[in-house]
Design a protein that fits this description.
- The complex is a heterodimer of chains A (111) and B (114).
- Helix content of chain A is 0%, strand content 45%.
- Chain A has 111 residues and is mainly β.
- In chain A, a hairpin with a 5-residue loop joins strand 6 and strand 7.
- Chain A starts with 8 loop residues before the first strand and ends with a strand.
- Chain B is mainly β and 114 residues long.
- The chains are: A mainly beta (111), B mainly beta (114).
- At the A-B interface, strand 3 and strand 4 of A face strand 4, strand 5, strand 9 and strand 10 of B.
Chain lengths: 111, 114
């Protein structure tokens, strides 16, 4: 699976949009981009995924560049409860479906 | 159940002892995964079950680690002759067959070997 690169930490003011970047320059044509987050003392939580089109759900938006070498997760109105570690993962949606997690981005939402 | 349940939530054991960690997946989910997470690191894949069989056990670190899922639902991760380096949070996740939408993790079992 392709390797991803994320900044180790970010801060965001409460109520503002949080934009979390991810580089996946070696992504293959059939690999999806997945985002999970992990709040302290809990297991990772699925947020969103996409292949090449931008995606939006009730939690977030995912913007994937046209060359698919990077993506951005957007939390439109961050709250204190969004403070967590956010993981960007790329993988093929077949076979074992296992994820290779990196160390993620620790997002701190400030009051 | 509504979510993935893992028991116990915390386990302290002495070096050299045997431990079992249990995972109850979401009802109807055919795929089940075990991951291990050390402090400050992302989860590390251990093993994947599709139904009753281990389809991928490439992440098990050595032969002291073993996992079973005899009836295709509940799974048990077994660790023999525990070592202090086995201390970590052990996470279980389950998903439907396609798993395209991702999978659901439990809250984990924190294992401490003293």
């Amino acid at each position: 699976d392709a390797k991803t690169t994320q900044p180790p930490s970010m801060d965001c003011a409460e109520g503002r949009a949080a934009n979390l970047p991810c580089n996946h320059s070696t992504i293959s044509g059939n690999e999806y981009v997945y985002w999970y987050r992990q709040i302290h003392s809990q297991g990772p939580q699925y947020i969103i995924h996409g292949l090449k089109n931008n995606e939006t759900n009730e939690m977030a938006s995912l913007i994937i560049t046209e060359d698919r070498k990077s993506s951005t997760l957007i939390l439109p109105h961050a709250t204190l409860r969004d403070t967590a570690v956010y993981y960007c993962i790329v993988r093929v949606p077949s076979g074992t479906y296992k994820y290779i997690f990196g160390t993620g981005t620790r997002l701190k939402v400030l009051a | 159940g509504a979510g993935v349940s893992q028991t116990p939530s915390n386990k302290v054991t002495e070096k050299g002892k045997y431990v079992e960690l249990r995972c109850d997946p979401i009802s109807g989910h055919t795929a089940l995964y075990w991951y291990r997470q050390s402090l400050g690191q992302g989860p590390e894949f251990l093993i994947y079950f599709q139904g009753t069989g281990a389809a991928d056990d490439s992440g098990l670190p050595n032969d002291r680690f073993f996992a079973v899922r005899p009836e295709g639902s509940v799974s048990t991760l077994k660790i023999q002759r525990t070592e202090r380096g086995d201390s970590a949070v052990y996470l279980c996740a389950s998903s439907s067959n396609s798993a395209e939408r991702g999978y659901t993790f439990g809250s984990g079992t924190r294992l401490t070997v003293v």
